[in-house]
Amino acid sequence: MAAPFPHHLFVTLSIILSVLACSIMMSNAQLSPNFYAKTCPNLQAIVLSAMKQAVTKEPRMGASILRLFFHDCFVNGCDGSILLDDTSTFTGEKSAGPNQNSARGFDVIDSIKSNVEAACNATVSCADILALAARDGVVQLGGPSWTVGLGRRDARTASQSAANNQIPSPFSDLSTLTSRFAAKGLNARDLTALSGAHTIGQAQCQFFRNRVYNETNIDANFATSRKANCPSAGGNANLSPLETLTPARFDNNYYRDLVAKRGLLHSDQVLFNGGTQDGLVRSYSANSVSFFSDFAAAMVKMGNISPLTGTSGEIRKNCRVVN
Prior knowledge:
Elements: H1 7-27, H2 43-57, H3 60-73, H4 106-119, H5 126-140, H6 160-166, H7 174-182, H8 188-195, E1 202-204, H9 205-214, H10 220-227, E2 239-241, H11 253-259, H12 266-269, H13 278-286, H14 288-303
Antiparallel strand pairs: 1-2
């Protein structure tokens, strides 16, 4: 007959198993809007104050920070990896094609981080600061608000190749956009709603030159007006607003532009070009309430892409470098 299992070993095993179960749950923990309620109660007020200042100083900054968050989440999840500087031994995401000479707002995040560190040292991740700043920038420009889940930790690494291969391109067709978003758990409705972020911000001539010179599904007067600041050769960095009507206000006029064939980027106009998203674009163009609601919901979904939680990653002291 087998010897009975010693009671003290059974108790020890039970404790080990329960600790393991807790750590597994922690690593899969859902983000919580109250994550810093005790450890950094003034966090949201600190971020909001800084974003009010930044957007008042330069309205475009709301769009720039929103784009930073988008480009962060699409590469290995919302982990602050886009904020890491290249070093002699490390190549990050800032030098990837979608970010080089176009991603901006890093100094604003640095400034918010230093304010947060002064209030609650080594407590709040750069990834969470970016998520809050993206929301607050949208609100400052008249857009919707949403509840930001918190508890992300910062990556200790980044991936230039993933940034080059996973962030959607301004030259993408609808099927490519749909599959890129689907790979991140975002559906076609999320794609069309999140594209509405282009109601604010600007784009460089190099990203819309082919559209205004060579494409046919474009309003002729609009194409002519954009050529004025985007010559057929040179002037690659010249800027044009992504939306024609109220480019510094977050509203549904982006979709009205698409219906009028005034999408600036190829990847904008493909959402309204005889395809699956035409009906939704028409709906958003007529109803800002449904656009705001869907945009907010899609931002929450995007913010939940593969966060590092529990003991994964770290809380960076400086958003540009690993500890």
